[in-house]
Amino acid sequence: MNDIEQFVNKFGLTPFWSVVIILLIVCIWQYDKVRVIVTDIYCIVAKTIGWFKREATKRKLEEICNKGLTSISQEISELNLPNLKINWIAKGSQDITLKDKEVIVFLKFNTDNTQNIINTTSAYVKKTLLPIPKTYMSPQVRDAIDYTVIRKCLLEIPEYRLAVNDFIKNSQDICIENQAIIDKVCNIDDAGLMSRILFREYFEWGNRIAGRNIDNKYQKEASDFLDFLYDITARGYDDNTRLQYISENIKVGVLLVAKLDTFSAQGETPYVRRIKEGFAKGIRTFYLLARNEKLDIVEDVYGKLIQTGNYNLLNGPKAYKDAQGRENICYCIEINSEGNMAQTFNRLSDAMEKNTTLEAVVHSIYADKILCQINDVKIIIPHNKITDVPDLKLYYYFQVGMSIEFIPEEYDKHGNVLGSLLQTNSNPQRMMDNKFCVGNEVEAIVEQALDDCLFLRIKDSDIKGVALRKDITYSHYIFLHQHFPVGSEYLFRIIEIDYISNRLHLQLANLCDPWENLKYSEGQKLICTVYQKKENCVITEIEEGVKAILPFTEITWFTPESSQIKKLKNNVTFECRIKSINQDRRLVILTMKSAESPYLNYYKRIEENEYIVDAKVIASDAKGLVCLADEKYRIFIPQSETHIGANKYKCKIKDQIKVYIKDISNDKRSFIGSLKPFIKHPMQWFADNYAPGIALSNLTINTINEKSVLFNILRNNKLYCLGLLPIGEITNLCHIESIEQIYKDGIKFPLIITEIDMERCIVKLSLKKLLANNKDKVKSLDYYTRYSAHIIGKRDNDSIIIVDKIWIEGILIESKNSKIGDKVSVRAISLGEIPEFSGD
C-alpha cells in the first residue's frame, strides 16, 4: 500500500483518478470477463427496468454469437473472422457492414431472443465467411456451406438448442433444393476436414482468382473440389480413391498414413514418392491425415519429412475427434521453395523450357533404359532417347556411378523426369563411327606425360584419351615421361567412355601384375636403387611394380651409425638380399646384414664363462634395463629379472655390472639377460634351515578365501615369508567346498612343508600329508576316552573330523546336523585304518 501511495503522490493524482486508472487497467487486462459481468448486470437490470432491455439483449447476443463462431476461427486462423457487433434499427431492411475489424449487424429487435440469434448468426456467416470465394461458387455450393456453418455455430450455443431446430425449419426450401450438396459438406465436416482443408483451400483459391470475371469454370472448379474431398471422407477401407486434385487454380495432395507394418518395412519413402509425383504436376500443398492408432506413425512420418528441409508446416495441428468419436490429426505442409527438391524441380523445369542440358549420375542400367538421379529425383532415359541403333548394348557405354549429360523433356504421371541423350555429348553415336566401346583395344599416341597420367590421341582419329598411372604401371616411382616418351605408340584397352568430355579412359593392353607370378625368393641377392628415403627406411623396387623396403635396422646387426644411414640417398645403388616376401601386403623386406648373426658366435664364446659377461647400463624404464657388452652387443634385462621378491638389484645408467645371459632374442639382434644370480634370495635363510617334510605349527592366517589360505611365517617375531595351503591339500576323505568354514574359529593345525618355491617366494603346505604321517597314532586311541575334534567336511550323513593334539582324521557317524568348522567331543567306536567316532 505504501508503494501505491508513493506512486500516486509522485504523479499528483487524486484518490478518485487513482481508482479510475486502476479500473481501466483491470478492464483492459480482463476484457472478456468484465464484458460478461457487465452483460449479466444489464440482464438483471433489464428484468426490472425496461429501458435496459434492448442493450442487455444486444450484449447477450454478441456474447453468444461470438462464442459459436470461436471454434471455426481457432481451426483456421487464415480466415481472420472479425468480431461481431449488433446495432438495433427500427426501420429499413436488416444489413451488415465491416468497420475496424468488426462486423456490425443492423438488426430489428425481436422479443424472441432465439430468432435474434438465428438472424444474427445467419447474417454474420453469409457476409463474413469466405466472402471472395463464395462470389465465384455456384448458388447451391454457397447455400450448402452457409447452411452447414450456421447450423454448426448454433450447435455451439448449448443454452439455445431450440435455435438449431427453428433454423432447420426455416431452411426447409434450401435443404430440399440442395440436399445432396449439403450432405457432402456435412459429411466433410463430420470428418473434421471442412475447416482444416475445404475452407483453407477455398480461401487460397479465392485469393488467386479475386478480381476476375465470374465464370462457370470457377463454379465447376469449386464443386469438383468439394466432390474430391467428399470422396475421401466417404471412402471404404480398400477403395481406390483419388488423392490428388489438380485444376487450374486448386492443386492439392492428400496423404493417408498406412499401417504400422507397412511403415516399418518402407518408412517414409512412399510418402516422399507421392509428394514428388504431385510436385511434378504442380501441387505445392499436401495434407497428411491419420486416425486412431496411426497418430504415432504420422508424427514419425512428419518428423522425417520436415528434417529434410524440403517442407514447411502451415498449421499447428492438434488431435481432434470426428463425429464417430475417432481421434484424428491433419498436418498441412507445403513445399519449401528454398529446399533441394524444389530447387531441383525448378532446374529441371527451366531446362525443359529452354531445351538445355543437365548433368546426372547413372543409378541403374537396363537393356531398354538408363535410370539416373539428381538429388533423389529419378531420371528415366529410354533406349530410343539414347541412340537410334536398336541393337546397341547400353552396358558397353555406361557404368553405374558415372556422370552423363541429358536434356529433360517432360514429367511422367509418377513425377519422374523423361530425358534424352540424343543431342548431348553423352550420345554413344558420337563415337559409333569409330566403333569405340568398353573392352575394345585401340592404338594411341602419347601427346603429354605427367606424373600421374598420360594424355593420348587415338591413332588415325581426333578422339582424345587419358590413361591414369594405375592403368599404365603398377609402379609408384618410375617416371612416366621416361617410360612413355611423347610421340610413341602403344596398344590400349578402353575401360570407360567419358561422354561429358567426349574422351576415352584407357588402360595399357599388356599391363600385368608382377605379383601374380613373382620370380624372387628369400635370401636372393640383389642390387637396388633408392627411390625414396623415409624416417626409418628407404624404399625401392626390385622390379617395376614390386615394392621393397630396407629398414635401417637391417643395415647391420648392431645399432646403425648415422654415417651408414646418410650414405643411402636417392638414386644411390646398394647391395642387399631378400629377407622376406609378404604377398598379402605386396611388400618385400630387404636386408644388408650378414646371413648369420654375430650374437650366435658371441653366445658360444661366453659359454666357458658360464654365460656371465660384463656390461654397461645404457637405458632403464618400466620394462627393464638395456645394457651393452663389449660396447656393441645389446642385452635386454626384463624388469622381472632385476629382483627376487622384495630384493632388487640396484644400479644406475653408465654402471658396469655383471649380467647372466639367458637366451638370444627371436630376431637374433639382442640377448635376454638376468640379474637374479647376483641377488641374494629373500628366502635363502628359510631354505637353509627348513626342508620339505618338516611340520610348521602355530601359523597365523594372512588371507583366506574359498580355495586357499595364506599363512604368515615369522622369523624373530617378524613376517618373513608366506605359506600357501591349497584346498586340495586338506584331506582325501571328502570334497572340501570352502576352507573359510574350516578356519572360522581360528583353529591352528600343524602343516607339512611340501615345497619351498624360490621362484615365487612362497612355501607350499599340506594338511593331508600331516594326517597321513600320523596314521600310526590310531593305535594309541581307546574306546573310553573322549577326544576333542574339529569337523572339516561332510560325507553323506557323516562328518570328517581331525582329532586335536593327535592330528589324525576319522569319520563321525550319523552327524548330519553338525556344521563344518564346529568343535565336537567324540568317542572312538572303530579303530580300523580309518577310525570311526560317535558323538554319544
From TrEMBL:
Domain of life, per lineage: Bacteria
Gene3D superfamilies: Nucleic acid-binding proteins
Coiled coil stretches, renumbered: none
Ranges that cross the membrane: 12-31
Presence of the UniProt keyword Ubl conjugation in the record: no
Keyword Cytoplasm belongs to the record: no
Molecular function (Gene Ontology), one example: nucleic acid binding
SUPFAM superfamilies, alphabetized: Nucleic acid-binding proteins
PROSITE patterns: S1 (PS50126)
Domain (S1 motif): residue spans on this chain: 439-509, 523-593, 693-768
Cleaved signal peptide residues: none
Keyword set, alphabetical order: Membrane, Transmembrane, Transmembrane helix
Name of the protein in its database record: S1 motif domain-containing protein
